[in-house]
Design goal:
Layout: E1 2-11, E2 15-25, E3 28-33, H1 40-47, E4 55-60, E5 63-64, E6 76-79, H2 91-102, H3 110-120, H4 136-147, E7 154-158, H5 166-179, E8 184-189, H6 192-198, E9 201-206, E10 209-214, H7 216-221, E11 227-232, H8 234-243, E12 246-252, E13 255-261, E14 272-273, H9 278-295
Length: about 300
Amino acid sequence: MLEIRDLVKVYPGGVPALHGVSLQIPRGMFGLLGPNGSGKTTLMRILAGLLEPTAGTILKDGVDLTRRPELIWPRLGYLPQDFGFYQDLTGAAMLTHLLGLKGVDAPGGRAALCAALLDRVNLTAAADRKVRTYSGGMRQRLGIAQAIAGDPDLVIVDEPTAGLDPEERNRFYRLLADLARDRTVLLSTHIVEDVAMLCPQFAVIRHGRLVAHTTPQAARAALEGRIFEGIVDNEELERLSLEGVLTQARLVEGRNLARIHAPGGGGRAGFSSTVPTLEDAYFVMIRSSQTERSAA
């Protein structure tokens, strides 16, 4: 169990990034969902022992990591949002170099470990290609290979699917789901689909504050009978957006299909009740947090 208690981070100059965040994160996949700039990366860096919190405590299996962050490093796999590679090295050479930096080895030697890791992330066929020829998804899988070296029991991945095409994203989903079978995997993302596909539990963070800690099923169930869908023109779409009730809008055969949240359960003319999605729930959570902050 990973437990975060009242975590605060204030950067120099008095810039607040986290405001008393508390979470309990079990084994398996856990999602941290929030818009860009919400404090997710700050939280990930603190959990990884790369950034010192201003206040608060992080406990991993009862050990206080805020006092002894070095205790988590041998048990941690970390894939940051922007992971740098040497572009002219091959995938195998790059991974071998990273294994050396991490001090990770295996009974059969580092070359055998590198081959096994590349096989696990389905990069064996590309092992001798230069990293600059890799697609975005291949780079992410190479990043995961270094993250799981040493068989860590906590893996942190920060925005891992941003910019991936649908095929690479699905491949990456399967890889992360497999990793979460026997360890804690903390997935930080602003993409609702990532959480819907992978996470039995998730938390929402905005402006450094915890907005919700729930499950996808519970989040959708809370909106039963309150989400409505209808075709609207551009002017009506803009009005719905200004009113703050619009949860999703997409084009269908050139027309605007809008989804709205009606807290009282009453629909509008031309709208019919529909099944809530996690994206609907995410909008409502974010909107509610904005309203609460404005009223405070």
